[in-house]
Specification:
It is built from 1 helix and 12 strands; from the N terminus they run H-E-E-E-E-E-E-E-E-E-E-E-E. The protein is mainly beta. The strands form 2 sheets. Strands 7-6-5-4-10-11-12 form a 7-stranded antiparallel β-sheet.
Length: 186
């Protein structure tokens, strides 16, 4: 009986301690990208870039911006603004809502200090929106990181700098329960 209680305790402890934790991250070209999965199949993201303008991350582009699920945000003295965009052309993106989709980003906050802008947000791993990319455990995805020039607090100014990297989504299984996590493919 003691073994059964110990087994139940370990079974509950492992998935519960893993959910919402295990932040992954990478630094590239002055950007810091951190992410972790959350209960309910969502992805919490923190993006910091070397600018006092906007910063953006694009998930799974097909070519340049085309097909990417773009999340772009900026911070003013009054508020933090964020928008869920889709790369509808190689060099163009627009709000999902303007294209007939849905806004599927939950703003978690933002800050600006020392010449850097940070935005924090949560997105579903699968929103069901045709303009968002589903993030599936076991797959590797290209991620774009971009920034606007200092002071460009808007969603329309052309990027001053863009780079890309890859992340790999992985999953841990605990007796049939799956926790989806993401790690850098560095």
């Amino acid at each position: 009986m003691k073994k059964l209680y110990l087994l139940i305790f370990l079974f509950c402890l492992l998935p519960c301690s893993a959910l919402g934790q295990g932040w992954q991250g990478l630094e590239i070209e002055g950007f810091t990208l951190r992410w972790t999965t959350q209960p309910g199949d969502s992805l919490a993201v923190e993006l910091t870039g070397p600018t006092t303008g906007w910063v953006a991350v694009g998930f799974d582009p097909e070519s340049m911006m085309l097909g990417a699920n773009m999340i772009i945000g900026y911070v003013t003295t009054e508020s933090t603004e964020i928008r869920d965009d889709y790369g509808y052309q190689t060099f163009s993106h627009d709000a999902d809502t303007s294209l007939g989709g849905t806004h599927d980003v939950l703003l978690d906050g933002g800050s600006e200090s020392g010449g850097e802008t940070e935005v924090r947000f949560t997105i579903p791993l699968d929103s069901g929106d045709q303009y968002d990319k589903q993030l599936v455990p076991g797959n590797t995805y290209t991620v774009l990181l971009a920034r606007g020039a200092d002071g460009e607090d808007n969603f329309t100014t052309k990027h001053e700098f863009v780079t890309s990297t890859e992340i790999e989504i992985w999953a841990l299984s605990f007796d049939g329960l799956t926790w989806a996590g993401i790690k850098s493919a560095e």
